[in-house]
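yo, Putative NAD(P)H nitroreductase is done. seq:
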Amino acid sequence: MQNTVYQVIKQAIKQRRAIFPPSYIKKEIPKTLLVELLECANTAPTHKLTQPWRFIIFRENGREKLADQLAEQYKTHTSPEQFLQKKYENTREKVLQSGAVIAIVVSYSGSLPQWEELAATACAVQNLWLAASAAGIGGYWSSPGTVKYMGDFLSLAANEECLGFFYMGFHDESAREATRKPVLEKIQWEE
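structure:
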């Protein structure tokens, strides 16, 4: 018989899905719960314990500031021929529909290859995502093209980079498993 904890973790992993802002319901995510979720993120594996992740949480009025900034960055850095008013509005709306939006920041230590610190930060986001999903909070990680222009707004240091935003909110969607190619097609055995 397999361990019950294993079964719970396996189910949580298999049912973690991207849930988008139009599915979020109007329900505040308490600060205490956000801290608990980020404590889960903070336990991610990290080479030499550099712990390169940092998070900036936008909630309440902070969401409006972020929505305005992302929309303005889109407008500023999109040619008039490419600019779509609907995309401008959607950029703002998905932030405002969210219970919280978290900027995902990596701080490069300089003592490790950057890819290792990117991977550690991605592991932290996966921990966050799994914990949020288990708490009934949907989310998804988005990296808009304008993220590279957000450094001043996010007060990033010279060794930091924003990897995107984690949008999150309570939702009523049913749990579902991922559609993936069979894992046996991705395994090569050397015995």
